Amino acid sequence: MIALISMMIVSFLAPDVSAVIGGDLNCTTFNGSAFVWTPAAVACSNFISDASCAVLYPTTDTLGFPAPGNAAGRPLACYTTGSVTPAAVIQDMKTAAASTCPRTCGLCCQTEAYNCPNVAYPRLNCASITLSQCNSPAWRTIIAADCPSACGFCTQGGCVDAVTNCGTDLSICQNIGMQSFVNTYCQRTCGRCPSTTASGSVTVTSGTCTSYIADSSSNCASWSRNGFCTNTFYTVAQRRSRCATTCRIC
């Protein structure tokens, strides 16, 4: 009996290494029994490598890092100086995490590109939009207008390129034989957005040029949607070395 009581006490006092989400509940939803991560929590890309983010914001949760539908605890360093939960939310730490490792910290829905209202009566269900739809020429322009928060289009003013590689060769914007194509598929890059939406492409940071060095990262499109091209946290040299074409930096 004494042994049984001792085991019960140890079990009661032992820490739960797979704790429920605590502290900052942004980007979560209640599923009827627990708070779990929404798809929007991890819809974006980190601004630095995932490996670096894992070092900066480590987790001891057996569920790992935030993922849609799971209840992995948000890494403490993402929002607090505390070493255990519950812990007070420190806004500066949360802001720093969102500007560098929003996906690792489950904070994508709080970034500028994802934190905006959708229209009252969208033409599709904003909550069910998939990544493939975000990149589909058939859906991108509709999503940008009706459900911008679903794909990180909040900073695009309702106007996006229908295809994602318009910036690869900017000469198409002036090519006479390509005008029908760019008017339909490259409105943002080529400055063909309707006057009621965002104007044209990103402003060139310095100088003028008609071509740009190739992006060195495959994440530039996602980073751009999250504000990388205009975020002064990074120097112009850093942005140019990684995403010169996407950010239109000569």
Total tally of structural domains? 3
Order of helices and strands: HEEHHHHHHHH
Assign a percent range to the helix content: 25-40%
The major β-sheet equals:
2 strands, antiparallel
Helix-and-strand structural type: mainly alpha
Averaged pLDDT: 80
Q: What's the total number of strands?
A: 2
**How much β-strand is present in the residues?**
under 5%
Low-confidence stretches: 1-18, 196-207
**Widest beta sheet: strand line-up:** 1-2
Report how far apart the termini are.
77 Å
Shape: globular
Disulfide bonds: 159-193
Keywords: Disulfide bond, Signal
Organism: Caenorhabditis elegans
Domain ShKT: 159-193, 209-250
Describe this structure in words.
Residues 159-193, 209-250 form the ShKT domain. InterPro entries: ShKT_dom. Keywords: Disulfide bond, Signal. Disulfide bonds join 159-193. This is ShKT domain-containing protein. This protein is mainly alpha-helical. The protein has 3 domains: 28-110, no CATH class; 116-197, no CATH class; 200-249. It has 9 helices and 2 strands, in the order αββαααααααα. A two-stranded antiparallel sheet has the order 1-2. A hairpin with a 4-residue loop joins β1 (28-30) and β2. The protein is globular. Mean pLDDT is 80; it is low at 1-18 and 196-207.
